Amino acid sequence: MPPPTEQGFKPSTPSQESGEEGQLRIFRLTLRSNRPILGTATGVRGFFGTRFPDEVLLHQHIPGTTATLYQYPKVQYRIEGGEVTAIGIAEGAAALGRVYDQFDEIRLGPHTYPVMERQGEIATEPFGLTETPRPYRFATPWLPLSQKNLPRYTEIRDRALQTAFLERILIGNLISASKSLRYEVPGRIVAALRDWEPVSCEVKGTRVIGVRGEFTVNFAIPDDLGIGRSVSRGHGAVRAAPWDE
Description:
Blueprint: E1 22-32, H1 41-51, E2 75-80, E3 83-89, H2 91-99, E4 105-108, E5 111-114, E6 117-138, H3 150-155, H4 159-180, E7 191-203, E8 206-220, E9 238-240
Antiparallel strand pairs: 1-3, 1-6, 2-3, 4-5, 6-8, 6-9, 7-8
Protein backbone atom coordinates (compact mmCIF):
# COMPACT_ATOMS: atom_id res chain seq x y z
CA MET A 1 0.00 0.00 0.00
CA PRO A 2 1.55 3.34 -1.00
CA PRO A 3 1.84 5.80 1.87
CA PRO A 4 -0.46 8.83 1.96
CA THR A 5 1.07 12.08 0.81
CA GLU A 6 0.74 15.51 2.35
CA GLN A 7 -1.21 16.86 -0.59
CA GLY A 8 -4.90 16.11 -0.51
CA PHE A 9 -5.02 15.34 3.19
CA LYS A 10 -6.75 18.54 4.16
CA PRO A 11 -10.45 19.13 4.70
CA SER A 12 -12.30 21.17 2.13
CA THR A 13 -14.29 24.09 3.44
CA PRO A 14 -17.80 24.48 2.05
CA SER A 15 -19.27 27.87 1.31
CA GLN A 16 -21.38 29.50 3.97
CA GLU A 17 -24.35 29.47 1.61
CA SER A 18 -24.26 25.78 0.63
CA GLY A 19 -24.63 24.18 4.05
CA GLU A 20 -22.87 21.11 2.67
CA GLU A 21 -20.40 19.11 4.70
CA GLY A 22 -16.70 19.25 3.98
CA GLN A 23 -14.43 16.32 3.24
CA LEU A 24 -11.77 14.77 5.47
CA ARG A 25 -8.98 12.50 4.33
CA ILE A 26 -8.77 9.55 6.72
CA PHE A 27 -6.05 6.90 7.06
CA ARG A 28 -7.08 3.90 9.19
CA LEU A 29 -4.29 1.55 10.22
CA THR A 30 -4.77 -1.81 11.93
CA LEU A 31 -1.83 -3.76 13.37
CA ARG A 32 -1.96 -7.43 14.32
CA SER A 33 0.60 -9.61 16.06
CA ASN A 34 1.01 -13.35 16.61
CA ARG A 35 -1.00 -13.03 19.82
CA PRO A 36 -3.55 -10.57 21.18
CA ILE A 37 -2.00 -7.18 21.85
CA LEU A 38 -2.61 -6.15 25.46
CA GLY A 39 -2.17 -2.68 26.82
CA THR A 40 -3.72 0.75 26.53
CA ALA A 41 -4.16 3.37 23.84
CA THR A 42 -1.99 5.63 25.99
CA GLY A 43 0.79 3.06 25.69
CA VAL A 44 0.39 2.91 21.92
CA ARG A 45 0.61 6.70 21.66
CA GLY A 46 3.70 6.58 23.85
CA PHE A 47 5.27 3.98 21.55
CA PHE A 48 4.73 6.14 18.47
CA GLY A 49 5.94 9.23 20.31
CA THR A 50 9.16 7.53 21.42
CA ARG A 51 9.78 5.87 18.06
CA PHE A 52 8.98 8.96 15.96
CA PRO A 53 9.60 12.04 18.13
CA ASP A 54 9.81 14.41 15.16
CA GLU A 55 6.29 13.54 13.99
CA VAL A 56 4.50 15.89 16.36
CA LEU A 57 0.98 14.96 15.25
CA LEU A 58 1.56 11.36 16.38
CA HIS A 59 2.01 12.32 20.03
CA GLN A 60 1.08 16.02 20.55
CA HIS A 61 4.41 16.88 22.23
CA ILE A 62 6.74 19.51 20.81
CA PRO A 63 10.25 17.97 20.48
CA GLY A 64 12.92 19.36 22.79
CA THR A 65 10.39 20.99 25.11
CA THR A 66 7.85 20.03 27.72
CA ALA A 67 5.14 21.83 25.76
CA THR A 68 2.02 20.08 24.51
CA LEU A 69 0.29 20.83 21.22
CA TYR A 70 -3.15 21.96 22.34
CA GLN A 71 -5.39 21.17 19.41
CA TYR A 72 -7.78 18.46 18.32
CA PRO A 73 -5.62 15.31 18.01
CA LYS A 74 -5.23 14.37 14.36
CA VAL A 75 -3.91 10.89 15.14
CA GLN A 76 -5.96 8.77 17.53
CA TYR A 77 -5.29 5.29 18.91
CA ARG A 78 -7.22 2.32 20.28
CA ILE A 79 -6.65 -1.28 21.26
CA GLU A 80 -9.68 -3.37 20.42
CA GLY A 81 -10.03 -7.12 20.07
CA GLY A 82 -6.30 -7.64 20.59
CA GLU A 83 -5.46 -5.32 17.67
CA VAL A 84 -4.02 -1.80 17.51
CA THR A 85 -5.98 0.75 15.52
CA ALA A 86 -4.61 4.16 14.60
CA ILE A 87 -6.65 6.72 12.69
CA GLY A 88 -4.96 9.65 10.98
CA ILE A 89 -7.14 12.65 10.19
CA ALA A 90 -6.33 15.40 7.65
CA GLU A 91 -2.63 16.22 8.15
CA GLY A 92 -2.51 13.38 10.66
CA ALA A 93 -3.25 10.95 7.84
CA ALA A 94 -0.08 12.04 6.06
CA ALA A 95 1.95 11.87 9.29
CA LEU A 96 0.75 8.35 10.01
CA GLY A 97 1.37 7.40 6.38
CA ARG A 98 5.02 8.41 6.66
CA VAL A 99 5.69 5.93 9.47
CA TYR A 100 3.14 3.13 9.20
CA ASP A 101 5.68 0.69 7.71
CA GLN A 102 8.78 1.95 9.53
CA PHE A 103 8.68 -0.49 12.45
CA ASP A 104 8.49 -4.27 12.85
CA GLU A 105 7.39 -4.53 16.46
CA ILE A 106 5.39 -2.64 19.06
CA ARG A 107 6.67 -2.27 22.60
CA LEU A 108 4.04 -1.72 25.27
CA GLY A 109 5.46 -1.73 28.77
CA PRO A 110 7.40 -4.96 29.35
CA HIS A 111 5.84 -6.66 26.32
CA THR A 112 7.04 -6.67 22.72
CA TYR A 113 4.68 -7.65 19.92
CA PRO A 114 6.00 -8.45 16.44
CA VAL A 115 3.89 -6.87 13.70
CA MET A 116 2.63 -9.80 11.64
CA GLU A 117 0.07 -7.89 9.62
CA ARG A 118 -0.66 -4.26 8.91
CA GLN A 119 -3.81 -3.23 7.14
CA GLY A 120 -4.31 0.31 5.90
CA GLU A 121 -7.30 2.04 4.38
CA ILE A 122 -7.28 5.51 2.84
CA ALA A 123 -10.58 7.29 2.30
CA THR A 124 -12.11 10.72 1.85
CA GLU A 125 -15.22 11.02 3.98
CA PRO A 126 -17.88 13.65 4.75
CA PHE A 127 -17.48 15.85 7.80
CA GLY A 128 -19.76 18.71 8.72
CA LEU A 129 -23.25 20.07 8.95
CA THR A 130 -26.04 18.11 7.27
CA GLU A 131 -29.64 18.95 6.46
CA THR A 132 -31.03 16.01 8.44
CA PRO A 133 -29.93 14.32 11.68
CA ARG A 134 -27.85 11.15 11.64
CA PRO A 135 -27.65 8.46 14.35
CA TYR A 136 -24.38 7.56 16.08
CA ARG A 137 -23.15 5.58 19.05
CA PHE A 138 -20.10 5.90 21.26
CA ALA A 139 -17.90 2.90 20.49
CA THR A 140 -15.70 3.90 23.44
CA PRO A 141 -16.72 6.02 26.44
CA TRP A 142 -17.10 9.72 25.71
CA LEU A 143 -15.43 12.01 28.26
CA PRO A 144 -17.45 15.24 28.22
CA LEU A 145 -16.62 16.57 31.69
CA SER A 146 -13.72 18.75 32.73
CA GLN A 147 -12.71 20.20 36.08
CA LYS A 148 -14.66 23.29 35.06
CA ASN A 149 -18.01 21.71 34.19
CA LEU A 150 -17.95 18.65 36.47
CA PRO A 151 -19.30 20.53 39.53
CA ARG A 152 -22.22 21.83 37.49
CA TYR A 153 -23.04 18.34 36.19
CA THR A 154 -22.94 16.79 39.66
CA GLU A 155 -25.35 19.45 40.96
CA ILE A 156 -28.00 18.47 38.41
CA ARG A 157 -30.36 15.77 39.71
CA ASP A 158 -32.99 15.79 36.97
CA ARG A 159 -32.29 13.31 34.16
CA ALA A 160 -33.73 15.56 31.45
CA LEU A 161 -31.60 18.49 32.60
CA GLN A 162 -28.50 16.28 32.71
CA THR A 163 -29.22 15.19 29.15
CA ALA A 164 -29.60 18.78 27.95
CA PHE A 165 -26.36 19.73 29.71
CA LEU A 166 -24.45 16.91 28.00
CA GLU A 167 -26.01 17.73 24.63
CA ARG A 168 -24.62 21.26 24.85
CA ILE A 169 -21.17 19.84 25.60
CA LEU A 170 -21.48 17.44 22.65
CA ILE A 171 -22.26 20.34 20.32
CA GLY A 172 -19.32 22.27 21.75
CA ASN A 173 -17.02 19.29 21.14
CA LEU A 174 -18.03 19.19 17.46
CA ILE A 175 -17.48 22.93 17.07
CA SER A 176 -14.06 22.67 18.73
CA ALA A 177 -13.00 19.78 16.48
CA SER A 178 -14.26 21.68 13.44
CA LYS A 179 -12.08 24.68 14.27
CA SER A 180 -8.96 22.53 14.50
CA LEU A 181 -9.85 20.85 11.21
CA ARG A 182 -10.43 24.25 9.57
CA TYR A 183 -14.11 23.62 8.93
CA GLU A 184 -16.35 26.60 9.58
CA VAL A 185 -19.76 25.34 10.70
CA PRO A 186 -22.27 27.20 8.50
CA GLY A 187 -25.35 26.77 10.68
CA ARG A 188 -26.82 25.49 13.93
CA ILE A 189 -25.89 22.04 15.26
CA VAL A 190 -28.75 20.19 16.94
CA ALA A 191 -27.93 17.09 19.01
CA ALA A 192 -30.12 14.64 20.95
CA LEU A 193 -28.50 12.22 23.38
CA ARG A 194 -30.42 8.99 24.06
CA ASP A 195 -30.08 5.72 25.99
CA TRP A 196 -27.01 7.06 27.74
CA GLU A 197 -25.46 6.02 31.01
CA PRO A 198 -22.49 7.29 33.03
CA VAL A 199 -19.53 4.93 33.38
CA SER A 200 -16.33 5.09 35.38
CA CYS A 201 -13.14 5.50 33.32
CA GLU A 202 -9.48 5.90 34.14
CA VAL A 203 -7.36 8.61 32.52
CA LYS A 204 -3.69 8.86 33.52
CA GLY A 205 -4.40 7.10 36.81
CA THR A 206 -7.42 9.24 37.71
CA ARG A 207 -11.03 8.05 37.79
CA VAL A 208 -13.33 10.20 35.66
CA ILE A 209 -16.93 10.06 34.50
CA GLY A 210 -17.51 8.82 30.97
CA VAL A 211 -20.68 8.36 28.98
CA ARG A 212 -21.88 5.45 26.86
CA GLY A 213 -24.92 5.70 24.65
CA GLU A 214 -26.28 6.93 21.34
CA PHE A 215 -27.11 10.30 19.87
CA THR A 216 -28.43 11.96 16.76
CA VAL A 217 -26.97 15.11 15.28
CA ASN A 218 -27.21 17.00 12.01
CA PHE A 219 -23.50 16.53 11.42
CA ALA A 220 -21.52 14.02 9.36
CA ILE A 221 -18.86 12.28 11.48
CA PRO A 222 -16.54 9.63 9.98
CA ASP A 223 -16.49 6.30 11.79
CA ASP A 224 -13.91 6.06 14.59
CA LEU A 225 -13.40 9.82 14.90
CA GLY A 226 -13.18 10.77 18.58
CA ILE A 227 -14.91 13.70 20.25
CA GLY A 228 -14.50 15.08 23.75
CA ARG A 229 -11.51 14.69 26.03
CA SER A 230 -8.61 12.22 25.62
CA VAL A 231 -9.56 11.24 22.08
CA SER A 232 -5.93 10.50 21.20
CA ARG A 233 -6.09 7.79 23.88
CA GLY A 234 -9.13 6.18 22.29
CA HIS A 235 -11.97 7.85 24.17
CA GLY A 236 -15.11 9.19 22.53
CA ALA A 237 -14.82 7.18 19.30
CA VAL A 238 -18.00 7.59 17.27
CA ARG A 239 -19.60 5.14 14.87
CA ALA A 240 -22.73 5.32 12.78
CA ALA A 241 -25.72 3.58 14.36
CA PRO A 242 -28.90 2.23 12.74
CA TRP A 243 -32.13 4.15 13.11
CA ASP A 244 -34.58 2.65 15.58
CA GLU A 245 -37.53 1.02 13.90
